[in-house]
Amino acid sequence: MTGKPGRQAGSRHGLDEPNQVLYSETQRFSQWWIWVLVLGIAGLMWFGAVQQLLFGIPFGGNPAPDPLMWVLLLTFGIAMPLFMYALNLRTEVRPDGLYLKMFLLHLRYQVIPWQEIERFYPRTYRSIREYGGWGIRYGPSGKAYNIKGNQGIQLELNGGRRLLVGSGDPESLVGAITAASGVSPLDPDGSGR
C-alpha cells in the first residue's frame, strides 16, 4: 500500500487516511405507525387550515385565531413531516474511531475513539423498555442512538459508560469495528469470539 505524498505509508492498521470511511450506514424512521401518526397530524392540520382559512368555517369548538392556525399549519402540517423525513442516523467506522451523527440534531459527528471502547458486542435490545423509545435516548441501560429495529452494537466505554448504536446490519458493523480497532468483539456473556 502506498501513501499519499507527504504521508507515511502503512499507518495504523494499514490505513493511510484518518477520514477514510470503512463502513457507513444511514438509517431513517420507516416504521409505518410513526408515519401514520405524523401524516395523520399533518392531515388534520391541513384539513383545519383549509376549512378555516379558505372557507371561513371555524375549525373545532374553540377555533384558533387565523394567525395561530397559520403557525399550526406551518409547524405540524409542513415542518414536522419534513423534519421526520430528513432525520436520520449516520454511523461510520473510520481508522480513528466510531462516528455517529443524528442528522438535523447534530452539526458534527460525535466521535468515539477506539481507546475509549473497552469492549463491544452485537445484541438485541428493546427500545421502548430499555431506552424509552427511538432517537438519542437515555435509560437504565445507558445512552442509545437508534432509529428503528431491535438490533445493534453495545459499546462499553471507559468509566463504566454504556452506549448502544442501532444498526440494520450489526454483523457488518462489528466486522468493520474489529478491522479498524484491531479489537475482537465479545459475546454478550463476556466471552471472546
Structure description:
- There is one protein chain.
- With 193 residues, the chain is an alpha+beta fold.
- Among the domains are: 32-86; 104-181, no CATH class.
- The protein contains four helices and nine strands.
- The chain has helices at residues 32-54, 66-86, 127-131, 170-181; strands spanning 23-28, 88-94, 97-103, 110-113, 117-124, 135-139, 142-146, 151-157, 162-166.
- The strands form two sheets. Strands 5-8-9-7-6 form a five-stranded mixed sheet. A four-stranded antiparallel sheet has the order 1-2-3-4.
- Helix 1 (32-54) runs antiparallel to helix 2.
Q: What tags apply to this protein structure?
A:
28% strand, 9 strands, four-stranded antiparallel sheet, five-stranded mixed sheet, alpha+beta, 193 residues, single chain
Poorly predicted tracts of residues: 1-15
Secondary-structure class: alpha+beta
User: What is the succession of H and E elements?
Assistant: EHHEEEEHEEEEH
Shape: elongated
Largest sheet: spatial strand order:
5-8-9-7-6
State Rg: 22 Å
Mean pLDDT: 85
Count of discrete alpha- or pi-helical segments spanning 4 or more residues: 4
Helix coverage percent of residues?
25-40%
End-to-end gap: 29 Å
Number of strands: 9
Question: What percent strand?
Answer: 25-35%
